[in-house]
Design brief:
Layout: E1 4-7, E2 18-24, E3 27-31, H1 39-48, E4 56-60, H2 66-69, H3 72-77, E5 81-84, H4 86-93, H5 96-106, H6 110-114, E6 125-127, E7 133-136, E8 139-145, E9 154-160, E10 163-169, H7 193-204, E11 210-213, H8 222-243, H9 250-267, H10 272-281, H11 284-299
Parallel strand pairs: 3-4, 4-5, 5-6, 10-11
Antiparallel strand pairs: 1-2, 2-3, 7-8, 8-9, 9-10
Helix pairs in contact: 7-8, 9-11
The structure holds zinc ion.
Zinc ion binds near residues 149 and 150.
């Protein structure tokens, strides 16, 4: 297997955010690059395989959320080409709007969490169309558009000898190492249950041997994994149908969602350290906000 996860040790936590390194004859390609705050860990991870930042020729972004894409402007300045969904491109050229809305969420903690998000120089930015192939020397990545978590989201497929890897970004859910447990990151403003299901069907139509979510690492049981994402979508829909018609105030909604998430973890037998790790990789309040937005916009417009 020539796909190597690099642990970006986000906020000192192992196994929370990764990016993937794929060597080729002219250097290395990365799928995701993590936020600006984890560049030292990226550099260390590359060095462990005998590479340096200057060897990064290309960065393929699943989507532009800070934990996936924040370091790309800096990497572009070191020479990397940045590949992104067309709907994310303007934010990469000028991240101000993206950063303003993130600052409303994270406030004072913004810089500690995410570091610098520099704009990508225009001649380093390449937009990726649905169904297109990105060729990097002998590597060939197929891109498919998969909304549901974010509208500007792609997954990438790479054949690697007898294996075929799906880099699933956030649409394949969050699954931490050592766990048979999937959680869905459902942030505002674009979480959309029906689009998510349609995206999952597109992924399931592809033959794959491995699934590689950004949170976290390679898994060799993609059938189990994708079926568990379906189950998680069904469960959250049942919960939404029970809770949202009452349209509880956001504080109550956050508390109830957190309770439900905790219950789900207990049923699935997670130990306390994994519960905390999942919460760090995919904070429940963010999904409660996303569910409220989805409900008000798509299911019960006022
Ligand atoms: Zn995301």
């Amino acid at each position: 297997m020539s796909v190597h996860p690099i642990d970006l040790n986000f906020m000192g936590l192992a196994g929370s955010i990764c990016c993937y390194m794929v060597p080729h004859s002219g250097g290395v390609a990365l799928v995701e690059c993590g936020p600006g705050s984890t560049l030292p860990a990226l550099e260390k991870g590359l060095a462990a395989h005998g590479f340096a930042i200057e060897d990064v020729t290309d960065v393929l972004l699943s989507h532009i959320h800070l934990d996936h894409a924040g370091a790309s402007g800096w990497l572009a300045r070191q020479g990397a080409r940045i590949h992104v969904h067309p709907a994310g491109a303007s934010h990469m050229l000028d991240p101000e709007k993206l950063l303003n809305s993130a600052t409303r969420i994270y406030g004072e903690a913004m810089h500690t969490l995410w570091g610098d998000f520099l704009p990508v120089p225009e001649d380093q930015l390449f937009t990726v169309q649905d169904g297109s192939t990105i060729n990097i020397n002998e590597l060939s990545f197929l891109a498919l558009e998969v909304p549901g978590h974010a509208n500007h989201h792609h997954v990438y497929f790479l054949s690697d000898g007898p294996d075929r890897v799906c880099f699933s970004g956030d649409i394949g859910g969050v699954r931490l190492q050592g766990a048979h447990h999937i959680r869905l990151p459902m942030p505002p403003p674009e979480f959309h249950l029906e689009l998510w299901r349609a995206s999952l069907m597109r992924i399931q139509a592809q033959p794959i041997t491995h699934i590689a979510p950004t949170h976290f690492g390679l898994f060799n049981d993609p059938q189990w994994h994708l079926a568990a994402v379906w189950r998680a979508l069904d469960e959250v829909e049942t919960w939404i149908d029970q809770i949202m018609p009452q349209d509880p105030p956001i504080e109550e909604l956050v508390a109830r969602f957190l309770d439900w998430t905790t219950q789900r973890s207990q049923v699935e037998g997670l130990d306390q350290s994994l519960v905390e790790a999942y919460e760090a990789a995919n904070p429940s309040p963010m999904s409660a906000y996303g569910i409220q937005r989805y409900w008000r916009k798509h299911r019960h417009p006022a």
